[in-house]
């Protein structure tokens, strides 16, 4: 969360990555002492060199004359070879590696102290550079405002296609044979005979089944296929989401404060009387006066949901519990019925309110941060590519982006576990258990 109380999110694919600044690495003054790891390496190198010298047999003085000229030519190669061997040996020494890693961890993200050593006249020029950076932030803010206008413009071009998608899903429109033609990857190598056979089998299956309307459970399947959304779903939410017919994104009009609204359209159902549920996210695209360097694109400042008009007894966001209470004096027991909040996707439409001061407790801030991420994901990924999340193709693309990194992480965890098992001082009782996941 920024100093202004907003939470920054990746606003667009061409946003923060194009304009974000990169951190500088720490520098060490030449006069400063050698790091601990460096002194350790030097000491180990000397010991290894002594060991190598002891292992070498003494040469007969008579042989020295024969090899003197050759030795002068090969000295450079021998030194390089020894240096390589020492490097390999040191890199296989876990103590040296640990010392190096400790030193690198200490340098990561720490100021070098160079700024404090600069003369006053140089610091004055650095201040001028900072003022230029503030002006860059204001230009960047204007850039994002124009990006928002472009999104609004192209949203109007996308919408007719999304409307037709909705009509097909809810059986308001039956696509033509030409519109339904699609060459799947597995069909590329099939012969005409095999294609005809597959077509007949599909037609036979269709005859045996009742003719479904549109694409049943389209959006509920999308939600189940996406981990970010499926984590919010409870079993009692699923029958309601089967009635979800469409999700739309509406951008704020020209000259209005920057915002976007997610619209969830439902067919008439037994759970609530609403046919439209909305969630609006208000954003700001300007640097904070007190902290201009924190600007990294538009911030979602707050969000507002809507009131759901639940049918009596159908509100899945509440549950009734019974508690037994014992009277302190008489000792009699009574049963008390209480209504308490219940986990549900539909809590998404009642987010925590952000106070005017912008100050939030940690729990509310965590809930809002997750809420903003979900709203942004629905806007940027789900609505534009819904059919690919329905088929799972978009999920496979997302998984491809993380497979390699995940494998590396698994390897690292395996190495850490092996190191712990091989450590004679390791006690399983000292291991810190993983923190429990708590649903907000």
Please provide a written account of the structure:
With 440 residues, this protein is an alpha+beta fold. 49% of the residues lie in helices and 12% in strands. It has 14 helices and seven strands. The protein has helices spanning 16-19, 36-55, 61-91, 94-107, 114-117, 120-169, 177-180, 192-208, 218-225, 227-230, 238-241, 362-382, 386-391, 393-422; strands at 7-8, 244-251, 259-266, 276-284, 299-304, 318-326, 333-341. The strands form two sheets. Strands 1-5-4-3-2 form a five-stranded antiparallel beta sheet. Strands 6-7 form a two-stranded antiparallel ribbon. A hairpin with a 7-residue loop joins strand 2 (244-251) and strand 3. The longest helix is centred in the N-terminal third of the chain and has 50 residues, at 120-169. It is extended. Residues 10-49, 51-57, 62-73 and 431-440 have low confidence and may be disordered.
Short description:
With 440 residues, this protein is α+β, with helices and mostly antiparallel strands.
Question: Can you give keywords for this protein?
Answer:
alpha+beta, extended, 14 helices, 440 residues, 49% helix, five-stranded antiparallel β-sheet
| Unreliable residue stretches | 10-49, 51-57, 62-73, 431-440
Could you tell me the mean pLDDT?
75
- Content-based structural category: alpha+beta
Portion in beta strands: 5-15%
| H/E element order | EHHHHHHHHHHHEEEEEEHHH
Largest pleated sheet: 5 strands, antiparallel
Question: Helical element count?
Answer: 14
> What is the overall silhouette?
extended
Gyration radius from CA atoms, angstroms: 33 Å
End-to-end span in angstroms?
18 Å
| Lateral strand order in the biggest sheet | 1-5-4-3-2
Question: What's the number of extended β-strand segments?
Answer: 7
Helix content: 40-55%
């Amino acid at each position: 969360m920024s100093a202004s109380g907003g939470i920054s999110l990746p606003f667009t694919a061409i946003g923060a990555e194009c304009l974000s600044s990169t951190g500088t690495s720490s520098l060490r003054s030449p006069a400063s002492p050698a790091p601990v790891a460096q002194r350790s390496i030097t000491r180990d190198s000397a010991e290894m060199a002594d060991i190598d010298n002891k292992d070498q047999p003494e040469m007969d003085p008579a042989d020295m004359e024969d090899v003197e000229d050759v030795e002068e030519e090969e000295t450079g190669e021998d030194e390089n070879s020894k240096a390589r061997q020492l490097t390999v040996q040191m890199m296989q020494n876990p103590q040296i590696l640990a010392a190096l890693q400790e030193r690198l961890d200490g340098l990561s993200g720490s100021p070098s102290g160079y700024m404090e050593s600069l003369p006053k006249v140089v610091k004055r020029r650095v201040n001028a550079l900072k003022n230029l950076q503030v002006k860059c932030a204001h230009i960047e803010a204007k850039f994002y405002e124009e990006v928002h206008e472009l999104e609004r413009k192209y949203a109007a071009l996308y919408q007719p296609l999304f409307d037709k998608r909705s009509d097909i899903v809810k059986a308001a429109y039956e696509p033509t044979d030409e519109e339904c033609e699609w060459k799947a990857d597995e069909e590329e190598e099939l012969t005409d005979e095999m294609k005809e056979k597959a077509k007949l089998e599909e037609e036979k299956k269709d005859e045996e089944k009742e003719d479904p309307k549109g694409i049943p459970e389209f959006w509920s399947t999308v939600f189940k296929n996406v981990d970010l959304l499926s984590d919010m779903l409870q079993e009692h939410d699923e029958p309601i989401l089967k009635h979800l017919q469409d999700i739309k994104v509406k951008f704020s009009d020209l000259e209005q404060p920057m915002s976007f609204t997610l619209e969830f359209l439902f067919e008439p159902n037994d759970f609530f009387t609403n046919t439209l549920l909305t969630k609006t996210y208000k954003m700001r695209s300007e640097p904070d006066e007190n902290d201009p360097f924190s600007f990294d694109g538009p911030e979602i400042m707050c969000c507002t949901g809507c009131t759901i008009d639940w049918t009596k007894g159908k509100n899945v966001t509440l549950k009734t519990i019974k508690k037994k209470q014992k009277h302190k004096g008489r000792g009699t027991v009574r049963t008390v019925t209480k209504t308490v909040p219940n986990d549900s996707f539909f809590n998404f439409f009642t987010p925590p309110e952000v106070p005017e001061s912008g100050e939030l407790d940690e729990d509310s801030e965590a809930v809002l941060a997750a809420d903003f991420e979900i709203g942004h994901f629905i806007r940027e990924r789900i609505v534009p590519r819904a059919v690919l999340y329905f088929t799972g193709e978009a999920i496979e693309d997302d998984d491809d982006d993380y497979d390699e990194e995940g494998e590396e992480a698994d390897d690292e965890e395996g190495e850490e576990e092996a190191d712990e098992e091989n450590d004679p001082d390791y006690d399983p009782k000292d291991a810190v258990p993983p923190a429990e996941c708590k649903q907000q």
